[in-house]
Amino acid sequence: MGKKLFIETLGCAMNSRDSEHMIAELTEKESYEVTDEFENADLILINTCSVREKPVHKLFSELGVFNKKKKPGAKIGVCGCTASHLGEEIIKKAPYVNFVLGARNVSKISEVLHKDKAVEIDINYDESEFAFKDFRSSGYKAYINISIGCDKSCTFCIVPKTRGDEVSIPDTLIINEAQKAVDSGAKEIFLLGQNVNNYGRRFSGTHEKVNFTELLRRLSKIDGLERIRFTSPHPFHMDDEFIEEFANNPKICKSMHMPLQSGSTKILKDMKRGYSKEWFLNRAKKLRDMCPDVSISTDIIVAFPGESDADFEDTLDVLKEVRFEQLFSFKYSPRPETEAELFTNTVDPELASHRLTTLQSLHTEILDENNAKLLGNTYEVYFEELFQDGFVAGRSDNNIMVKTKGSEELLGKFRDVKITSIGRTVLTGEVIA
Ligand code: SAH
Ligand code: F3S
């Protein structure tokens, strides 16, 4: 019997890809196989996120449960951003943890596995050219990292402290990885980075100057690759060349994440985001003008220190004007080692909750109005997920999730689907061609 690995992944898509990388290394080099039950596992990994404050004691209480119920002799490893951020403290508080592996050190997984109490959290470690073994949780869509770290210094964000400076992965490695995924049947790739459209700013060795727009052009030449998605671009780097390539390249899916954070130019300045309300609106308008079908998603933080009623109104204004198809919204949460942690002009927690609700209800109204217009439309859907009760689900080019009656045989196929009923997160339709 092979050894069993249980892995819990929290946080962003990049963490999901890091988990895939660790699974690949452990299955190929250490003969593990993945299990869904931690009680049966020989190795338990938690790949953590630290972007917002989930009380750290929650991590420790979870670790406590793992420790109590794990198989005798099973190892426990804490990986990811909270590992980078807390380091040795984790082993001090939970001495049964066998190792701690930072978000920028995942390539060392099979190494730390054999060093008891290892703490590898160097945020200057450069794994941008590390060739990970192959593992993908989906055969239809391939996640591909294009850079590690982040060079921005948004005052609310802990990521630069946990993932370090930004280094781009050479385009040749990315193209190879995409080609391999396509050869094994994937028709869609999903490019990942904290700030994808800053791609090419710094490579680890000497490298031809390739920016994100050029990377997209090169990738779209791969035969058999039908769809390219990416996350997250930064509004500051959305120049005309990038928006035009996005609009005109038929392989690039017409769905854009534009993390606004705040609609107030003053707050954006305090956040060090590098753009104004007007710039954001101008970019969104250019996108919508060039690409009428585009769906735009966003991230918004309410109640950042110093946010006045007028600042919050600016955020609502942008929401009304851009009418985002999807909203991820958060109450500001102070993070250690960030600039904003020291800001004293905090917003009253009750007011913060009120603003979050106001923002979300306004967005729900917009969503309902937007969705009502979709009834009867036809979308080309790429099916990638089996749902319960005889349904299969996939996404339209512009990222609308659609389900239809069907079986496995639709998976990995493109079909025209006519929308017959509307829901908030998923629409239902019938395959017509
Ligand atoms: N560059 C990444 C950012 C990762 S963090 C990206 O664009 O995806 C993801 C989101 O979490 C951010 O866009 C922001 O809206 C939110 N976030 C980050 N730090 C936060 C904090 N301290 N409090 C509340 N939300 C935060
Ligand atoms: Fe964080 Fe800003 Fe980078 S949100 S990940 S510092 S772009």
Largest sheet features: 6 strands, parallel
Strand share of the residues? 15-25%
Indicate the percent of residues in helices: 25-40%
Oligomer: single chain
Average pLDDT for all residues: 96
Distance between the termini: 46 Å
Which architecture of the largest domain does the CATH hierarchy give at level 2?
A: Alpha-Beta Horseshoe
Shape: globular
How many domain units?
A: 3
Superfamily (CATH H level) name of the largest domain: tm_1862 like domain
Q: What fold name goes in the CATH topology slot of the largest domain?
A: pyruvate-formate lyase- activating enzyme
Number of strands: 19
Estimated radius of gyration: 22 Å
| Alpha-beta classification | alpha/beta
Task: Give structural notes.
The protein is an alpha/beta fold. It folds into three domains: 3-120, Methylthiotransferase, N-terminal domain (Rossmann fold, 3-Layer(aba) Sandwich); 141-372, tm_1862 like domain (pyruvate-formate lyase- activating enzyme), CATH 3.80.30; 378-431, Nucleic acid-binding proteins (OB fold (Dihydrolipoamide Acetyltransferase, E2P), Beta Barrel), CATH 2.40.50.140. Helices cover 33% and strands 23% of the residues. The chain contains 13 helices and 19 strands. The protein has a six-stranded parallel sheet, with helices on both faces. Strands 15-16-17-19-18 form a five-stranded mixed beta barrel. A three-stranded parallel sheet has the order 7-10-11. It is globular. It binds S-adenosyl-L-homocysteine (SAH) and FE3-S4 cluster (F3S). S-adenosyl-L-homocysteine binds next to strand 13.
